[in-house]
Design a protein that fits this description.
With about 400 residues, the protein is of the alpha+beta class. The protein has nine helices and 19 strands. Helices cover about 20% and strands about 30% of the residues.
Length: about 400
């Protein structure tokens, strides 16, 4: 799951249920806000936290995300219309990624759906959408309750995730199935998640038990916390767009809306997945993108969002987000480009107008590989789904 853009003007940020626990681990004392919740940018250093995620087990406070418990006889059908995730086809214990679209087929937000029982689902979104959900549920046998403020959520990911969970006493929880378990006497729900290209597990438990669970994981599991800045590097390496940063969600003032195809996410909205909201409009827009979100590797130690992208010397777009990648030893970036743009050589403008442009090259990521396979093998107009379960 991807965090939305940060709130830079929140007057009174709220502490997440895990705040007092994670704050004690913070050496850098660098904080920001997401959806009005306090979130750590860095705990120790970006490089240390990045390496922990790559070789160990990183612990992320996921409290700032929006969560809804969706229950009822028509819960699956409701989620299958509200999002492009195949809720009706999910078995108990399965999760799927998807998108929320408006009637015109433009992306409102990312979405993840987990089926916890026959009639109970967990809907996780980067940002809250209470009004949109309430309107969509009218006339259906379903209840959608915002539980964001009632639960604590801890993400654990990296190659040592299974070992951390086992050491903490959650041997039945794994990175492929949503399940329930008991950790130190606390009923805990778990679901598979993914940060960048790395699978992991999200633990969700009553907020009153946040410190108990955190201490159990830290003392027995030997994981280490990770902040937003290191998560941002992992996100960019995977090529996943961030709402409010790489695109403005449809419906916001001044938004230039984007279709799933324009964001490189057509594989999350296959046209045969059901009658999700916006599907009819996508049938008309499929194969006709106006823009493209593309990934680049920039031969430099730093670059800036908003920098111009040149293809064969001609301006073709702008950088929307970027970060230094320790794995690639380059800056990696996402850029909003004209869909018709192409080039043999690419350059990125420097923050210093007098400096030469920075050499760049197109970059294949996890997300772009999925999108390419979807387009090449089945075609946007066919709309046949890739494997969605995890």
């Amino acid at each position: 799951m991807i965090f939305p853009a940060e709130d830079f003007f929140t007057d009174a940020p709220r502490p997440t249920p895990l705040f007092s626990a994670v704050a004690s681990e913070s050496e850098a004392n660098l904080w920001t806000t997401i959806n009005g919740w306090t979130a750590a940018r860095v705990y120790s250093s970006v490089s240390n936290e990045y390496e922990t995620a790559k070789s160990g087990a990183a612990l992320a406070d996921l409290g700032p995300l929006a969560r809804y418990a969706v229950r009822g006889a028509e819960a699956a059908e409701f989620l299958g219309r509200l999002t492009t995730a195949p809720a009706v086809n999910l078995h108990v214990g399965e999760s799927a990624r998807g998108l929320m679209l408006n009637d015109a087929g433009y992306v409102i937000d990312l979405a993840e759906v987990s089926r916890l029982s026959d009639d109970l689902f967990l809907l996780t979104l980067p940002a809250p959408h209470a009004r949109h959900i309430a309107l969509a549920s009218r006339g259906m046998a379903v209840e959608a309750n915002d539980i964001s403020g009632d639960v604590a959520a801890l993400g654990i990911f990296g190659p040592q995730t299974a070992g951390v969970l086992s050491a903490a006493g959650l041997k039945s929880v794994n990175e492929t199935t949503a399940a329930s378990g008991v950790l130190r006497g606390v009923e805990t729900a778990a679901r598979p998640i993914q940060f960048g290209a790395m699978p992991g597990v999200e633990l969700i438990f009553p907020k009153e038990e946040a410190l108990t669970i955190w201490e159990r994981i830290i003392r027995r599991g030997a994981g280490a916390p990770i902040g937003l800045d290191a998560l941002e590097v992992l996100r960019l390496e995977a090529g996943a767009p961030r709402p409010g940063l790489d695109f403005t969600p449809a419906g916001r003032a001044g938004a230039s809306p984007r279709t799933p195809e324009e964001l490189g996410l057509a594989h999350l909205a296959p046209l045969d997945r059901g009658w999700f909201n916006g599907r009819r409009a996508l049938l008309e827009k499929a194969g006709k993108p106006r823009r493209r979100l593309r990934a680049f590797a920039i031969d430099a130690e730093q670059a800036s969002p908003g920098a111009a992208v040149f293809g064969d010397g001609k301006p073709q777009g702008r950088v929307t987000s970027c970060a230094w990648s320790p794995a690639r030893k380059r800056v990696i970036a996402l850029a909003d480009m004209d869909a018709a743009s192409a080039g043999n050589t690419y350059e990125i403008s420097s923050s210093d107008p007098a400096a030469p442009r920075l050499p760049a090259a197109r970059l294949e990521t996890v997300e772009s590989s999925l999108a390419k396979a979807f387009a090449d093998e089945q075609g946007y107009t066919q709309g046949l789904a890739t494997d969605f379960r995890r």
